[in-house]
Specification:
- About 5% of the residues have low confidence.
- The protein starts with 19 loop residues before the first strand and ends in a 27-residue tail after the last helix.
- The chain is built from twelve helices and 15 strands.
- Helix 1 crosses helix 2, helix 5 runs parallel beside helix 6 and helix 8 packs parallel to helix 11.
- The chain is globular, with a radius of gyration of 21 Å.
- The strands form four sheets. The protein has a nine-stranded mixed β-sheet with strand order 10-1-9-6-3-2-13-12-11, covered by helices on one side.
- With 489 residues, the chain is α/β, with parallel strands linked by helices.
């Protein structure tokens, strides 16, 4: 995402189709707006928690990707690195944050994770053991993930597990990839693990290594990871305190973003991954409540709606396939409030949406990521300390919510992200062995100078920019409480 960088995305929207394996009663899509209550996925993403994006989501430290951060921590010592990550996993979201989500009518969360979450350390045998796996990531996050799922389940909030980072790097120089590389030939899509090679990173003086042996490709490792996740989900969903709590598995996030001509590799991997995951789900008799979807992002998404439909018709994918589409206006150029509103509200007049290639193939859609950020983080549009900007952001929020909620093909949405990391420092010290929020900050309170508060759902909720879905009274596109086609209050 790295939202202040214009080279990340130039198009009006940031569009993605995500491969999902979704369990548990999302309901049938409503065909008229008043009937949407009860089956609409009103969600948020839990980005930056079990997969760190340290190039932009925090302000007490900055690194290009999580592996870069861990490498720096290990220069102190290995125990320091492990404790830092344990602090982050255990304390980034306090229980009160989950209460806020429940009170805001949030029904689902999308939980981004890295593939290493489901691997044991090189010194252990269990995926619950703390240590370092073959590529140097800290393991053991699964202990806190299961605790988080239990906390959310108590509040009636379902979880989608999102494999946000695949082995070897799934996108070019992206923080969310876990490793930030530029060479597609070394990537998940074309590369293989090689213990004799050091792969250059996108950040200066950073490179990546592995101790992984065997005649395998990174895609082979990815399939194995997904099989592990599918087995783990079946166990969690049968646990007494988390019955059917996990309702989704997203196979890959924004595949091959920044690289051209990798669509065949993306399709080939998804064509392998779907049967592998489906076989395990069938083994545990979950197939009747499983929904599969596919994931693409430009420039590797041409005609993918047709491709998904063809695979459904051929019996390769189930008829309940779901599409996850990312809708961002941050990279749409310089737009004033009225123009931002027009980007959203024009759908009411044209009856067209950016996800038409999927809805036109009768594929249900999730808006898997969206936000209120615009104009590449221009403070004239994101300074939430200013009352007028807050009011205009509330209108921008309501307009987008009405667009999603009013579209019969949209099954729900997830706002990116539940919190940002301003003021948070997980590194242990004598005064703060468990990490700490610096004075004047919280999960819903950024430092004044932090440039990304408009991405923080819980902060926007506290400020009254975000209001619960039930209070919007949506009757159509840009027709709701706080909606305004002029984009102004």
């Amino acid at each position: 995402k790295q939202p202040n960088k214009p080279n990340v995305m130039h198009a009006m929207v940031h569009c993605v189709v995500m491969l999902l394996v979704l369990f548990g009663a999302f309901g049938v899509l409503g065909t008229s707006t008043p009937m949407r209550e009860g089956n609409y996925v009103n969600g948020v993403d839990m980005g930056g928690w079990f997969l760190m994006e340290p190039s932009w989501m925090y302000d007490q430290f900055t690194y290009q990707a999580e592996n870069d951060f861990v490498q720096a921590l290990r220069k102190v010592n290995d125990s320091f690195a492990i404790q830092t990550m344990r602090n982050h996993w255990a304390n980034y979201f306090p229980p009160s944050a989950f209460d806020d989500l429940m009170n805001a009518n949030v029904t689902h969360v999308r939980l981004p994770v890295g593939y290493w979450t489901f691997e044991p350390p090189t010194t252990g045998t269990s995926i619950y053991d703390y240590g370092f796996q073959d590529e140097g990531f800290v393991t053991g996050a699964l202990n806190d993930i299961e605790a988080a799922i239990s906390q959310l389940a108590r509040r009636g909030i379902k979880v989608v597990i999102d494999l946000h980072a695949v082995p070897g790097g799934g996108s070019q120089c992206q923080s969310y990839s876990g490793v930030a590389i530029s060479d597609p030939n070394k990537s998940f899509w074309l590369g293989s693990p090689d213990p004799t090679v050091s792969v250059p990173g996108c950040a200066p003086n950073v490179s990546y290594t592995t101790t992984r042996h065997g005649n395998v490709t990174w895609q082979d490792v990815g399939v194995k990871t997904l099989e592990t996740i599918a087995n783990w989900i079946s166990i969690v969903n049968k646990a007494q305190d988390t019955p059917n709590a996990i309702v989704g598995l997203e196979i890959v996030n924004e595949p091959a973003l920044g690289w051209n001509n990798l669509e065949p590799q993306v399709k080939a991997f998804l064509s392998r991954a779907v049967p592998a995951v489906s076989a395990i789900l069938t083994q545990y008799q979950m197939q009747d409540i499983v929904v599969l979807g596919l994931n693409f992002i430009g420039p590797n998404d041409l005609g993918t709606g047709d491709w998904v439909r063809q695979n459904i018709n051929a019996g390769n994918f189930p008829s309940s396939t779901v599409i996850d589409f990312h809708f961002y206006l941050n990279w749409s150029g310089s737009l004033n409030w009225q123009q931002l509103a027009q980007q959203v509200c024009s759908s009411a007049q044209t009856n067209q949406t950016p996800w038409d290639q999927y809805s036109g193939n009768n594929l249900p859609v999730w808006i898997g990521e969206w936000s209120l950020s615009s104009n590449l983080g221009d403070p004239n549009f994101n300074n939430v300390t200013q009352a007028t900007i807050r009011d205009n952001l509330r209108t921008f929020y309501a307009n987008q919510m009405s667009l999603f909620y009013s579209n019969e093909h949209v099954a729900g949405h997830f706002y990116w992200t539940a919190r940002m990391g301003s003021g948070w420092d997980p590194r242990p010290s004598p005064s703060y062995p468990n990490g700490h929020q610096i004075k004047g900050t919280a999960y819903n309170q950024s430092l004044t100078q932090f440039g990304y508060a408009d991405w923080n759902f819980l902060e926007l909720l506290r400020l009254g920019v975000v209001v619960p879905l039930s209070e919007l009274d949506i009757t159509g596109i840009c027709q709701c409480k706080y909606c305004n086609q002029s984009g102004l209050v």
